[in-house]
Please model this.
Amino acid sequence: MSTVQDTVIRWYHQHARELAWRSPDRTPWGVLVSEIMLQQTPVARVEPAWQEWMTRWPTPTDLANDQPAEAIRRWDRLGYPRRALWLHQAATRCVEQFEGRVPDTYEDLRSLPGVGDYTASAVLAFAYGRRAVVLDTNVRRTLGRMWAGEQFPAPSITASERTLAESIVPADDQTAAQWSIAVMELGALICTATKPACELCPVRTECTWTIAGQPPYDGPPRKTQKFTGTDRQVRGKIMAVLRRSDEPVHRSEIDLVWADAIQRNRALDALVADGLVDPIDELHFTLPSS
Model:
């Protein structure tokens, strides 16, 4: 194992945040839930939601036996509520095909609804201690700076980026899993997108980007996400109305959440198409029951 890998792992053991889904008694289900929740959502918002979720549904079987509407209600304001349906569908698949457990192979994990390359690799590494190439935003940015000398990675994962990451992951399962979580934590706490704390980085003297004088990003324009005024904001307001009611909601209540009728109707139609809202008839809507 290289000096960089060893140093980063030692730093992790000294500075890692104590998160419930990293505890010694964590379960593969708990890790899967955390990874789905953490997609585009800060840790501070995920922690209480994860605790509540795991208390109510500690196993895939518990969630599969409940209604999808309850999963959406418990998702509350985490955003992107489609993820709640994915978790419910994944739990059902675990029960139907994997004897109620979260599968432990990459191919089987990818067969679960809502589980892509990153999530499957993360569950293998963090739940099962397997060697996997775990590439989230924090890892990509950190590896790009340390080895490629680039401030930010490309908009999407490139073949050369994956090859580099694969070559860096240690060969044995245990060390590989430790490296995956350690480099991710380094990116989250030190090698951040804005104002990286380079003076606190344990491998700053070996960072290619720092050695080169921290050249600015010169790739394609980086996308920034806005929220105010978007269809996503309207969808969230409609979902909030539906979550508050155990009965079908009349269209007139939905009409109150947003003045622009065209945008409001577009958002509602999209929620129906995504399976997050069930139309009872032309005037009544509810959360999905199956």
User: Anything to note?
Assistant: The first strand starts at residue 249 and ends at 250. The domain at 27-126 is CATH 1.10.340.30 (Endonuclease III; domain 1).
